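Q: I'm writing up a methods section and want to include an example of the input and output format. Could you take the sequence below and give the corresponding predicted structure tokens, formatted cleanly so I can copy it straight into the document?
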Amino acid sequence: QVQLVESGGGLVQSGGSLRLFCVASGLISRFYPMGWYRQAPGKQRVLVATISSADSTNYTDSVKGRFTISRDNGKNTVYLQMNSLKPEDTAVYYCNLRGRMYDYWGRGTQVTVSS
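A: Here is the clean output for your methods example:
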């Protein structure tokens, strides 16, 4: 059974930092693109960052220069380092793995940034 489990969310003041973790089980995540999405209250779920099997990364414009996605293949884990957080970053953050036939999703971790 493939599972993605996120952690690391919490409450932080504007300008602060958080590090999110996504641990995959049931498959070797090394071979698949992975990413982070977020969904704010009343908004659609949107892409935040992606990382390929070759460690190529992409970011949505609003987080460029502030967020960094990375992976540790030996630990089957993807990270999202979030710096200079803004209230607009408040959302539930979801881990995603693009499998051969379909996508897998975690249950999400809440990030709240206070002003």
